[in-house]
Amino acid sequence: MLDEAMRLAMASSELVRGTTSPNPPVGAVVLDARGEVVGVGATRPPGGPHAEVVALAEAGDRARGGTAVVTLEPCSHHGRTPPCTEALLAAGVARVRYAVSDPNPKASGGGALLRAAGVDAEGGLLATEVERGPLRAWLHFARTGRPHVTWKYAATLDGRVAAADGTSRWISSEESRAEVHVLRTRIDAIMVGTGTVRADDPRLTARGIPAARQPLRVVVGEGDLPPGAKVFDDEAETVRVRTHDPDEVLAELVARGVVDVLLEGGPTLVGAFVAAGRVDRVLLYTAPKLLGAGMVALGDAGVATITDAVGLVVEEVSMCGPDVRISAVPAVL
Ligand code: AOF
Ligand code: ZN
């Protein structure tokens, strides 16, 4: 029952991903004393109520003696909003289960505070799933101060991202492309270099999804761009960052409140990010096709010999239509 409630809290938080940064997309579910779902909530945009408060408002009196299930430890601080611990105590919740502790020192300690007030409060429920899923980017940001970077690309089985003549539409399947458009609605920013804008003239928007919110489009590099490039249309906001240094790029993005970035660049930009150790996840759609010649996904990444190869750990392999989807993260040394 608690696992199920946590999965519901996670699903609810997925729907607000991309709208809460620099705050975490948290999900909360309130069960009444008999274990029935009486409230579901997710973090509102910055300055708005936290997930617990949204779920408690829906539950009303039925929260008394019930359980709150939250993806993140309830906050204990007066930030832009009052502490969620106070809201939970005022509602008379008897039990709180959360997935991960809040790494933000200002907000943490909610679990201990609730226990001291007599609530049966405990963390760790589906912690790995939440850490890898909806809170991954924000946890990375809270711990490192840098946005989380997912390098996403589509390649053939022989590792090509474009054919010899430069054409690349469409390497991956319709299913994979549809999935990427959903992904684009759930991140804060999408990043490419000037080379990709010149070569592909991409729109970098989420398409095929009604009323989708659009991520911030980020073009990295100093080169001139054709004024008519599609990234400059009015479908979404676009910023240019005129440096190639990954940490300078990421610092500019933090200043804009960006926490979760999708890197869709070409070999040069991605090479710089990999060389700097600033790719936090690799998301690859491998299409069962061969090209034999053409552009490879990654350029110089500062690796000269096999012992210097960037080590990754595969987290998940699954099918997306005819393509194989691989998610991998840097190996911890
Ligand atoms: C929760 N539930 O839904 C969220 C939490 O500026 P504030 O007042 O909105 O506080 C932001 C901090 O609160 C954020 O850094 C994180 O530590 C926590 N976010 N906490 O209990 C929520 N979004
Ligand atoms: Zn809170």
Structure description:
GO terms for molecular function: 5-amino-6-(5-phosphoribosylamino)uracil reductase activity; diaminohydroxyphosphoribosylaminopyrimidine deaminase activity; zinc ion binding. Pathway: Cofactor biosynthesis; riboflavin biosynthesis; 5-amino-6-(D-ribitylamino)uracil from GTP: step 3/4; Cofactor biosynthesis; riboflavin biosynthesis; 5-amino-6-(D-ribitylamino)uracil from GTP: step 2/4. Converts 2,5-diamino-6-(ribosylamino)-4(3h)-pyrimidinone 5'-phosphate into 5-amino-6-(ribosylamino)-2,4(1h,3h)-pyrimidinedione 5'-phosphate. The chain has about 325 residues and is an alpha/beta fold. About 25% of the residues lie in helices and about 25% in strands. The protein has an eight-stranded mixed beta sheet, with helices on both faces. The longest helix is centred in the first third of the chain and has 13 residues, at about 1-15. The two termini are about 35 Å apart.
Counting helices, strands and paired strands, the structural category is alpha/beta
Percent of residues in helices:
25-40%
SS summary, helix count: 10
Mean pLDDT: 96
Order of helices and strands: HEEHEHEHEHHEHEHEEHEHEEE
Largest sheet: 8 strands, mixed
- First and last CA, distance: 37 Å
Q: Largest beta sheet: what is the strand line-up?
A: 9-8-7-10-6-11-13-12
Shape: elongated
Query: How many distinct beta strands?
Result: 13
Contiguous runs where pLDDT drops below 50 for at least 5 residues: none
Chemical compounds bound to the protein? ligand AOF, zinc ion
| Content of β-strand | 15-25%
GO molecular function: 5-amino-6-(5-phosphoribosylamino)uracil reductase activity; diaminohydroxyphosphoribosylaminopyrimidine deaminase activity; zinc ion binding
EC number: 3.5.4.26, 1.1.1.193
Family: In the C-terminal section; belongs to the HTP reductase family. In the N-terminal section; belongs to the cytidine and deoxycytidylate deaminase family.
Pathway: Cofactor biosynthesis; riboflavin biosynthesis; 5-amino-6-(D-ribitylamino)uracil from GTP: step 3/4; Cofactor biosynthesis; riboflavin biosynthesis; 5-amino-6-(D-ribitylamino)uracil from GTP: step 2/4
